[in-house]
Each structure stands twice: as structure tokens, then as C-alpha cells.
Amino acid sequence: MSHGVQVGGLTPLTTIDYPGLLACVVFCQGCAWRCGYCHNPELLAARASRPGLGWDDVLAFLQQRQGLLDAVVFSGGEATLQPMLGEAMRQVRALGFKVGLHTAGIKPTALQRVLPLCDWVGFDIKGLPSQVDAVTGCSGAAQANWTSLDLLLASGVNFECRTTVHWQQTNGESLRQLAQHLRGLGVRHWVVQPVRSDRMLDPALGKSIADEELAPLWAQLGCGFEAFQVR
């Protein structure tokens, strides 16, 4: 058996996880952060609770999809925590697929190692630097999150930023400040993702209810970005 990533799941076909391309998504097992709104809590543990797909199974699937799929997206959990992520990306590229990555930049050095192997990145910016530690439940998360964004900007790899919003953890003014921060750094594409509060790691967060009319807020947030979307 090859030594690959720890696979927590596979979406065989998606049109929304890599912009403009038909892709599959490999969900990598394990995440070091504990965002209360996380909707994939089964992927947080370093090892899956039940045996499932192995990396060899994923490679066999991809060999059957050559010419049918355009890209493979590594998601999570947090894919960059996988020691063999770079090798897995090389194997995917050797099969003729583009490589996408969904990441929050938990380990900046690990992200920096694999960025040259990526064609596109969906980057989770968790909030303003003052908010990130509370959102993730981890001390030092803010420095990692924002340092990784700097690395991504410097890499030249095509990317979008996305921010998941739970209104118990942020508000319109904080999002306006975040938009200003991102524009100032040169981020061109930003996606805001209202949380799906029906399934979360921490149900105690409760329903996500905004305290202001959202249509004007979305219009304000989108100003100055090449592309802005509420997803």
C-alpha cells in the first residue's frame, strides 16, 4: 500500500469546489482547530473512527476518471497537516489533473511547502486578527491564519478568500473592517459563507441571526473586490 494522505471521504464530482472546472474532492482526516460552527466534525480527529477509503482507493478512482475530471481538490479537516500531502499532489498532477487546495493555513510552513504544487487555493480567513483565536478555540491561530495569507499572496497562486459567518461571533462592522484589511493586502476574490447552523461542532452557538439588514451589508462588502459572492 502506498503512503498517502489519511482520507476521511471523497466527493466524486463537484462543479463548485474548483472554480470553472469539474473536480472531485478528497477530504483529509484531521484538524487542529475547533471552530464551533464546523459542519464536518467527523473529520477533526487525526484518524477516522471507522475504516474507509485509503489513498490507494482514491488513486484507483482517479485513474478511471482521467479525461473526465479536470481537477482534484484536497480539503478537510485541514489538508496541510498531512505529512504526505505534497507527494499525493505530485501523484495527482502526474495523472493529468489540476490541483486545488482548501486550507485555513494552520501550519504556515506546511502550506508554503505545497503551494508550488497548487493550481488554485480556497483560503479560509477566519476573521479579524483579534477574532481568530476565539473562533478557532486555539491560541496562536490568528498569527498562523494571517501569516499563511501573506504566504499565499506572495506565491502568485490563483486563490479566493472565504469567511464563514456566524452572527454570534461577528457583526457587520467587523466584516466591514475585515473587507478593508483584505482589500488592503491585495485580495481580489472574497466569498462570505453564512454558517449552516443546523449541523455544527458546538450546537450551543445556536442559530445564526443577524442584527441588521443584510442586502446593504453585502453590497458594501463587495465594493473594491474583483469578485465578491455570498455562498
TrEMBL record:
<keyword id="KW-0479">Metal-binding</keyword>
<dbReference type="GO" id="GO:0003824">
    <property type="term" value="F:catalytic activity"/>
</dbReference>
<protein>
    <submittedName>
        <fullName>Anaerobic ribonucleoside-triphosphate reductase activating protein</fullName>
    </submittedName>
</protein>
<dbReference type="InterPro" id="IPR013785">
    <property type="entry name" value="Aldolase_TIM"/>
</dbReference>
<feature type="domain" description="Radical SAM core">
    <location>
        <begin position="26"/>
        <end position="159"/>
    </location>
</feature>
<keyword id="KW-0949">S-adenosyl-L-methionine</keyword>
<keyword id="KW-0408">Iron</keyword>
<dbReference type="InterPro" id="IPR058240">
    <property type="entry name" value="rSAM_sf"/>
</dbReference>
<dbReference type="InterPro" id="IPR012840">
    <property type="entry name" value="NrdG2"/>
</dbReference>
<dbReference type="GO" id="GO:0046872">
    <property type="term" value="F:metal ion binding"/>
</dbReference>
<dbReference type="Pfam" id="PF04055">
    <property type="entry name" value="Radical_SAM"/>
</dbReference>
<keyword id="KW-0004">4Fe-4S</keyword>
<dbReference type="GO" id="GO:0051539">
    <property type="term" value="F:4 iron, 4 sulfur cluster binding"/>
</dbReference>
<keyword id="KW-0411">Iron-sulfur</keyword>
<dbReference type="InterPro" id="IPR007197">
    <property type="entry name" value="rSAM"/>
</dbReference>
<dbReference type="InterPro" id="IPR034457">
    <property type="entry name" value="Organic_radical-activating"/>
</dbReference>
